[in-house]
Write a structure and sequence with these properties.
Blueprint lengths: L5 E4 L10 H9 L4 E5 L8 H5 L7 E2 L14 E4 L13 H9 L3 E4 L9 H10 L3 E3 L20 E7 L6 H14 L4 E4 L3 H7 L13 H10 L7 E4 L11 H11 L3 E6 L19 H13 L8 E7 L6 H15 L3 E2 L7 H14 L6
Parallel strand pairs: 1-2, 1-4, 2-3, 4-5, 5-6, 7-9, 7-10, 8-9, 10-11, 11-12
Helix pairs in contact: 1-6, 3-4, 7-8
Length: 361
């Protein structure tokens, strides 16, 4: 289940950096977005800010959305801040939306259904509050059952959080599907769940069951899939989010990893962890391969490519950073948004054939 036509709330934060949820919904489900709310940029088109999303207006207040044709049926919270807290100044807009009969879609760590004011308003006005980060009940401890899948399992990992792991995963799935493969995307975050309509936000799962959640996502994928691309979260070198990364690695048991990086970033993102330097790419590759070797010593899982997020760079700068990544790691590298995901698919295709040697179509 996913929102059909939403206004995205991103007040004061609508850009590629802070409103990652808003930007990704606009990139991958533009037909489901009626407008964006950000009074600081009202009157502009989303494409002027993001570089995509043409025809999606930025409005000053929710009441302006009533003039849209067709009108929206939902309000979607378009940010995913550290800690997942609800900005206090957003409460009046959410309450107004509920009174207007709009369903609310939230990917925050705080659940709207647990908020007495919003829960009561929703009941009175017959709307649904969707807390997409709420984990399902009954998640298991991982037991290695991900190995039972016939599909090739790929996981995107990163040098840091917020470097494009979800985007790389989605672009790879789209490229593989365009080449005739049955490619399945496993959503592990609030934004991708809103795009796909199902998944598990693993960063909201109790730590003992993170790997089990990843295992469930792999096992629940289409059994006829040739490739399952699991969306990565966090980073092994992030002091706050390393646990969720390792849980995904050991639960999904990928047979190959795609390393995502933002080349100009030298310390961990967010303002609270700049005391942690991001290691050189070749060292990050080794760290991930060693961590997989703890549970797959015989298979020796490898990082097979590097995806560079070059947003904001000139083309010359982007190509230079991609060459640097290739020289440092000895691996193929690209920016799948700027230059397409074709190179990543080229690396994955032979492995997909090997995963289903008697069934390749």
């Amino acid at each position: 289940m996913k929102p059909s036509r939403a206004v995205i709330l991103a007040e004061g934060l609508f850009d590629m950096e802070w409103a990652k949820t808003a930007a990704c919904i606009i990139r991958y489900r533009p037909d489901s977005v009626a407008a964006v709310l950000d009074s600081t940029q009202a009157g502009r088109d989303a494409s002027e800010i993001l570089g995509f999303g043409r025809g999606i207006p930025v409005l000053s207040r929710l009441s302006e959305a009533s003039t849209l044709d067709p009108p929206p049926d939902a309000l979607l919270l378009g940010i995913a801040p550290q800690g997942g807290e609800l900005p206090e100044e957003w409460r009046p807009t959410i309450a107004e939306a509920i009174r207007d009969g709009l369903d609310i879609w939230s990917g925050l760590h705080v659940f709207l259904l647990d908020d007495p004011e919003f829960a009561q308003l929703a009941k009175e006005h017959g709307v649904t509050l969707h807390d997409v980060r709420r984990p399902p009940a009954g998640l298991p401890v991982a037991t290695g059952r991900a190995r039972e899948t016939g599909a090739l399992r790929i996981l995107t990992v990163g040098t840091d959080c917020n470097v494009g792991k979800m985007t790389v995963a989605m672009e790879l799935v789209r490229e593989l599907a365009g080449r005739g493969l049955r490619a399945e995307f496993a959503a592990t975050g609030q934004t991708s769940i809103m795009i796909k309509g199902r998944g598990i936000a693993v960063d909201a799962v109790v730590s003992d069951f993170v790997a089990g959640a990843a295992e469930c996502l792999v096992l629940d994928a289409d059994p006829s899939a040739d490739v399952i691309v699991v969306e990565g979260q966090g980073s092994l070198v992030h002091p706050g989010y390393s646990g969720v990364t390792l849980g995904l690695m050991h639960g999904a048991l990928p047979q190959a990893l795609v390393l995502c990086t933002k080349p100009e970033r030298k310390t961990i993102y967010g303002g609270h962890h700049d005391w942690v330097k991001i290691p050189p790419l070749d060292e990050v590759v080794r760290l991930h391969e060693d961590a997989m070797a703890w549970v797959c010593p015989e298979e020796r899982v490898r990082v097979v490519a590097v995806a560079c997020n070059t947003h904001g760079m000139s083309e010359a700068e982007a190509r230079r950073e991609i060459r640097n990544a290739e020289e440092l790691t000895g691996l193929p590298a690209t920016d799948p948004i700027r230059f397409s995901a074709a190179l990543l698919a080229d690396v994955i295709l032979p492995r997909a054939r090997d995963a289903r040697p008697g069934e390749w179509r």
